[in-house]
Amino acid sequence: MSNGRDAGKTDRANSKPPRPRPVRGRSADADTRQTLERLRIVADFTYDWEYWRGQDGSLLYVSPACERITGFTREEFLGNASLYLDILHPDDREKLAAHLRDDLNDREMHRFEFRIVRRDGQERWIAHACRPVVDAGGQPLGRRACNRDITDRKLAEEALRRSNEKLRKLVTRQVSRIRIQEAYNRNLIEVSLDPLVTIGPDGRITDVNAATERVTGQSRDRLIGSDFSNYFTEPDRARAGYEQVFREGFVRDYPLSIRHADGHTTPVAYNASLYRDRAGKVIGVFADARDITDRQRAEESLKAERQRLYDVLETLPVYVVLLTTDHSVPFANRFFRKRFGESGGKRCFEYLFGRATPCEDCQSFKVLANGETHHHWEWLGPDGRNYDIHDFRFTDSDGSLMVMEMGIDVTERKRAEAALQESNLKLEQRVAERTAEMTRINADLVWFNRAMVGRELRMIELKQEVNELCRRAGLEPRYEIQAESKG
């Protein structure tokens, strides 16, 4: 059984649109054309990217707005069945592919969001809504969908989130200050989110805050008086840490891992220093443990991102290489290494060209010498192939200036261009030969026409003379000469 809401959807889906009444004095064809033109205007001039997929999954209609949103024309979408999936963001492709595969058998309306990569490389957020299409008899004709560009909204939401996060942090700091002012002594320790602990010269805990109780799973009473090193996965290392403080006065970012009573562990970085009484006598060690779980995750994420970037560079069908100002090669991707070999610590001019000094007119470093951000040139490599080169200024993580060079093998393109040029030259030569031949034939025809016209004129003159002699002799003219022949 369906609920009232589903029944309403079915009624609307199966309802027939009202037929336009014919205007008196006009033909049905004219009314049909006008109706079709109105429907075309309504469909083609929508601001959003609209489309209609048939029951076989093919695109039957795509609105022109697709070009504004994606950079691709509707003719490209209609002519390339895979273009829709090709422009999807890799992280969203599987979700939408499953939707496009299953939605034709679904009679419900669906809404969700995904990302696309425009022709110019920009990422855009899309709000997708689709519903089934049926004919007048209720038979399914596919699905009609609307894709709306909501990138600006997404950016605004992200800006609002960052603003709220900034405000949240600001509020947290203000609240902390108020608490510190109200109860400075004890509350100064208790409000800290980091586990805080004081350790006596004998290595036993003399005080803790609530955060220490939480991270260890032990009560304050149990912790105070116990050995500090007992709550770590490496007790000897923990003992060595506080002993170092007593010797040297402090430790910074000392890595340890706290073991909770239930067995799970928390990675922390300890900052610790000596604290003294009013007379200046050392009482013990004050230690602050900073939870570095998020930092470790961020470092792992950054490491994975760097690996991903490295993998991308390694799989590119072009070469990418970094050059330092002394012509060393700190990085070269697989394409470059495969074409030109490993540098082995040598500078570029040494292992590429076997030179002892840099090239006299090195194009690669002009992007640094001329203060440019991009330098474009072509190069015939030592492997005998042509490369289209793009050089960019690149600043390393330590601030040093480098050249990032990308080389695209255009050998086949050059060969194709040369073949095309040769073909064009042959074609031009053939056209010239045919033109000369036609000029000669035309000259012959002109001469022949002139000769024939002169002969005809002479015959007319002779006939006229004979007729004149006949008239003088009192005879009938022998020849009948047409008046227009004199022209």
CATH secondary-structure class of the largest domain: Alpha Beta
The share of residues in helices is 40-55%
- CATH homologous group name of the largest domain: PAS domain
Tell me the domain tally: 4
Under the CATH scheme, which architecture of the largest domain would be assigned? 2-Layer Sandwich
Strand order of the largest sheet: 2-1-5-4-3
- Cα radius of gyration in angstroms: 44 Å
Indicate the proportion of strand residues.
15-25%
The largest β sheet comes out as: 5 strands, antiparallel
Structural class: alpha+beta
Number of DSSP helical runs: 16
CATH topology of the largest domain: Beta-Lactamase
Gross morphology is elongated
Mean pLDDT: 86
Show unreliable segments: 1-18
- The counted number of beta strands is 15
Tell me the span between the first and last alpha carbons.
Answer: 100 Å
Write the SSE topology.
Blueprint: H1 4-14, H2 28-44, E1 49-53, E2 59-62, H3 65-70, H4 74-79, H5 83-86, H6 90-102, E3 110-117, E4 123-134, E5 140-149, H7 151-182, H8 184-190, E6 196-199, E7 205-208, H9 210-216, H10 220-223, H11 235-248, E8 250-259, E9 265-276, E10 282-291, H12 293-315, E11 319-324, E12 331-332, H13 334-340, H14 348-353, H15 366-369, E13 374-380, E14 386-395, E15 401-409, H16 411-472
Antiparallel strand pairs: 1-2, 1-5, 3-4, 4-5, 6-7, 6-10, 8-9, 9-10, 11-12, 11-15, 13-14, 14-15
